[in-house]
Fold this protein.
Amino acid sequence: MTRYPRDLQGYGPTPPDPQWPNGAKIAVQIVLNYEEGGENNILHGDAASEAFLSEIVGATAWPGQRHANMESIYEYGARVGFWRLHRMLRDLPVTVYGVATALARSPAQVDAMRDAGWEIASHGLKWIEHKDMAENDERTAIAEAIRLHTEVVGTPPRGFYCGRSSENTIRLATGTGAFAYIADSYADDLPYWIEVGDRDQLIVPYTLDCNDMRFATPQGFNAPEQFFDYLRATFDTLHAEGVAGAPKMMSVGLHCRLVGRPGRAEALQRFLDHARTRGDVWFATREQIADHWAATHPHTRRENPSQMDRDSFVARFGGIFEHSPWVAERAFDLELGPAHDTAVGLHSALCRAFRCASEDDRLGVLTAHPDLAGKLAAARRLTEESTSEQASAGLDALTDDERAIFTRLNTEYVARHGFPFIIAVRDHDKSSILAAFQSRVAHDRAREFDEACQQVERIALHRLKAILP
């Protein structure tokens, strides 16, 4: 069984209405990353100095050595940048991503965060890379981050964001059962649920584009105006979508040592002034957004086709192509994933199996279909799906004259093409079906074979939409 774990489907074309409080058209969420004192440093037991997100673009780690310039840049964030941002943001709901060891080394800053009523979420134990960390070591680090955070802050974190994560991070953080939300995703403009074993975990996605880290990366922001313009454009686009009926969430990522510098801080202030001019904006912590989402859109588990075993899959979907379970059997062997857990997605897989089949196999599907308003219908021997479909177009209530016309056309069509006339009756009414029947009976067989196959696929889509989202 080949299964693809990534979810490329998401909410699709119709995302849910978040129903933000007071009818807000956009939720704005500000994150202040507090990493200073938790970064790589041989003083912290690390193998080398820090090399990530500083004014030294292209910096490299110094194995076994302290890096005085790098250290002082991080120290600026704690000593000066934090307090500048605290003055600017203290009247707003802010989420702090706090590295536990950094928080432990900054008691005055933690006290100020608490006085401002900010949410302090976990940013892991140390601000280091986790991609090569052994799974059990990372599990231990997450547990220690929760313990130390609780000891320093006085309350356990309800949110978690690692940032420099591994492929195991979300699963391990979910496994603790400690977090109302996890933010190690950039996959959406709205929160969404994932299932990890028997746990349902809410993901509140974060941002790397509306993020001052781009002042410290190649091809990033070079001037305050660029930062402001990007934040403003994002806000205006999402606000307009909200006004149009599809509200979203905007995350803004900040770092004390980056936007805490005077020239950049001015751009942040301009953005805040711009966002405040709208009266329909909900400024919120990530914790508030998570709690709102969980209350408004609680998760409901359902059976997903991509996670079924073969027997269950074929039993459930073997009749989608009329009396032809082989279509489902072959579709099961394809690379299925979350994108195939919807009607449109599973339809794609089933159609791929059908289209790749031999002409004889596809002909077998066609001949498995009953005549329209034929003898089987009169004898009430159609499948439940076919009975419902024919009834939807009024084919179960024909007059004697209409039945005679359908009988004549059925006989003529089968004699000419070798399979019954097939049409997705849910797309039609009785008169349009009859018009199509009278037109198509004269087609050559090759053309009509292709048309019948397309109609079979259309019927399958209607049937799937009746049972899958």
In short: The beta strands are 26-34, 94-98, 119-122, 159-160, 181-182, 192-196, 199-203, 248-255, 281-283. The two ends are 23 Å apart (CA to CA).
